[in-house]
Fold this protein.
Amino acid sequence: MPLVTHARRTRRRGPRRFTRRDLAVIGVLLGFTILLDLFIIWGPTVASVTLSFSSWDGLSDLSWVGGDNYDTLAGGDYPPFWPAVRNNLLWIAFLGLVATPFGLLLAVVIDRGVRFSRFYQSTIYLPVVLSLAVVGFIAQLIFSRDQGALNAILGNENNPTDWLGDRDLNIWMVLLAAGWRHTGYVMILYLAGLKAVAPELKEAAAIDGANERQTFLRVVFPTMRPVNVVVLVITVIEALRAFDIVYAINKGRNGLELLSVLVTDNIIGEASRIGFGSAIAVVLLTVSLGFIVTYLVQEMRGEEHR
Amino acid sequence: MTADATATARRPAEARSGQQDPAAGKRPRRGRFGVHIFLGGVSLAFLAPLLLAVYASLRPYEETAEHGYFSFPRKLSFDYYRQAFSDSEMSKYFVNSLIIAVPGVLIVLFLASFAAFVLARLRIRGGFFLLILFTAGNLLPQQVIVTPLYVMFNRIELPYWMSESMTMYDSYWAVISVNVGFQLGFCIFVLANFMRALPTEILEAAVVDGAGVWTQYWRITLPLCRPALAALGTLQFTWMYNDFLWALVFISDGDKLPVTSALNNLRGQFFTDYNLLAAGSVLVALPTIIVFLLLQRHFIAGLTLGSTKG
């Protein structure tokens, strides 16, 4: 009982429960963290949106151009834009429809309990710890035209396929490499999710006469809702963030254009078009915000149950 | 941690249901063989690119150029590794990576753990809003913030002893602060969830004894968070070490690049020796692979703490 009254008293009196020293500690440390977050993340986000309505090279005077940058993007006056959008969408689709389900399948198979599951788990997970830039370099060993391992396996040295040079093919090869890394990530998340599903649920479903597939689809998968949301968000965000891997291969040109590459090109390229680069960044922001909100709603709903 | 507990609790239940179900005895055994072929095949396929990189890095270019990567090796040597270290000065870039990642991880863990402590334990006004602010910030694509940061860092002047370039641009301060700022959200989110699951009695006892906020945080809460901090530390080190974009954009002096971004230097202007590149890739991947193999448990705990709430 004393605890309860104590809690109520502190709640009512509010700030009084902290001494001056406490307030100073909180103010300095939490204040610094908040400022850093605003300085590095939210300030620049707002600035990106603002700059997207301007034309600026970073040195001379900034001029406001309204929606001109967006007109240029949509109107096709900037050729790499639509291929980049297409590649980003392909990236989302490939990770979401191939790599993620494959990771889930692996998690389900491993979770059923086989021997050496530790070994399988570690090997499949290993690519996740690699930098995407390293993944890009390793992809070149496999897919390069003259010495690549893939052409050697196929035995077509006389008429070699340029897997990374052919602009109709290369995006698929890069997606394979990206999927290599994504699958393990999804698998680990689902393995944890599957472990958290109460075995009673499965037993109840089995008693009711559900077979294994029905149990999984109707009982186990829906109860993993929080993990599903995390996986969905990670999949989309990873696809929108994709950059290192194509940059390591050919700096994101010739069929490997991505929105992230175009943003970077517009600022560190010779023509420093900051307003225009920001407009592309805002396109990225708009797409990702939808998923960020979905995720937060899910998270905060969980918070209320606490 | 909870996952471990439920997993062990489940074992007996599984065994029981196995006995009760008469069909269970037959099916798994037939399926088991197929499962091993499937998982073994997938594991091999996942491992193959890495093994190929190691194999290629040990062989001279002339040999693989003539006979391809699948030929029988005539000569195996560590020449390319020697070359990477002597000609390309990989050791310098490794040091650069440590200069960025070690302070980065320590600072982000310190700031995030205190913020998480305040948000999870002190119930200040607006705490919920702050949590949303931090969490959402971590999910933004990097390119959304990269342009204004680039402009800003070019304008922030630093004294010479802090940055040879006299600006925040082209200095480790830029890369470290962006790494820290960008990872804050994830760390705060994970640590706040972890701290909420800790028993409140110890903290209440400390408050009764007159412990201030700092003591409650540093002496009482933080030691209890050791598993979460180990997990996050492992994960954050890997992520900051693996970072490619921030250093690429914010550092112009090639000598200051971290090793992940410097890998591009091994590529020649007109001719790329892929075997040298393979050696470089293996070298860059090695620290993260070692960290992963040694601290696998922490690594996986770190990722799943964020998704299943500890």
Summary: Residues 1-28 of chain B have pLDDT under 50 and may be disordered. DSSP finds 15 helices and no strands in chain B.
